[in-house]
Amino acid sequence: MGLYDLHAHTTASDGGLSPQQLVELALRCGVKVLAVTDHDTIASVIPCQEAAQGSGLEVWAGVEISADVPASEVHMLGYFINPNHSDLRTNLEDLRRSRLERGTKMVARLNKLGMDITWERVQEIAGDASIGRPHIAQALLEKGYVSTMKDAFSRLIGRNGPAYVERTKLTPAESVALIREAGGFASLAHPQYVMSEAKQAGRLINLDSFIEELVESGLEGIEVYYPDLPTDLQNRLLNLADRYKLITTGGTDFHGLPGQLTRLGDVQIPDGVIAQMREWNAARLASN
Ligand code: AMP
Ligand code: ZN
Ligand code: FE
Ligand code: FE
User: Fold this and answer.
1) Residue 220: which of 158, 256, 259, 177 has the closest Cα?
2) 150 CA closest ligand 1 atom index
């Protein structure tokens, strides 16, 4: 085990490694199947697949779409999506634009709070990436306004922080529908986060009914193998998966940023899961 990683980011969103570097690392770590899942963008999919060509590493197309829920957000993983699907591309383009607008507003708020960071610097840090709060956090960090990325989120740019600004997001059901429309398999990413963030804001999310509704919208997977997920929570997710006949996906949520200790492939995903997903994809290809 430890041969698969179905959740990894690149410089196309808020990861630290380029698609080529991520593929090189996967090869060095002995990963056999890698799914690249950048936030709200599929720009890394084809570069990763090209970089892996002839290497024996299997790269699955993926995306991680952020969706809105009251007082929190959920991330929907989409696997085997067609990276050329036009509706998917248009929707992701809209999300990217909204990330830009929201980024400028957050910088303005930070300036008002007395922090002298510039939008130009945030853009420089992001490069070609779709702008995310981690880029803003980095700008704060290099100017010494925060001591760590985590500090930036907990004091300033977290959901309930003074510099937080909303951005346009799909609803969870819409994100599932979009993934399906683009030929993909939808899996709910790190379900433990949506509950804890909502709880911090004083709202409780009933995971069972939340998942039940998503299953009605076409959800077919749930992320159950994830670094440092407590066993009791994992068991609860495994039970839910069983009840709703969901495939239990997994990955490290690798970002490859300085200070991030997670290692690529350092998660135990059973071989059977990979087989089930391959079967799912084969059935879809056969039905087209
Ligand atoms: P955004 O997509 O711009 O809303 O930023 C969300 C991203 O910020 C997440 O996907 C994580 O990578 C990162 N993030 C969120 N909360 C934290 C936190 N408390 N500490 C560090 N990074 C975080
Ligand atoms: Zn991220
Ligand atoms: Fe996520
Ligand atoms: Fe992620």
Assistant:
1) 177
2) 20
Q: What is the pLDDT of residues 119-163, one digit of tens each?
A: 999 999 999 898 999 999 999 999 999 999 899 999 999 988 999
Ligand 1 close to Cβ of residue 133 (< 6 A): yes
For residues 253 and 177, what is the distance between their CA atoms, to the nearest angstrom?
23
Q: Is 135 near ligand 1, meaning CB less than 6 Å away?
A: no
> What's the predicted TM-score (pTM) here?
0.92
| Residue 147 CA, ligand 1 centroid: distance in Å | 16
* Contact between residue 66 and residue 169 where contact means Cβ atoms under 8 Å apart: yes
How many whole angstroms separate alpha carbon 146 and alpha carbon 251? 29
pLDDT of residue 261: 74
38's torsion region: left (phi>0), alpha (psi -120 to 50) or beta?
Answer: beta
CA of 284 to the centre of ligand 2 (A): 29
Index of the ligand 1 atom closest to the CA of residue 167: 4
DSSP state of 263: P
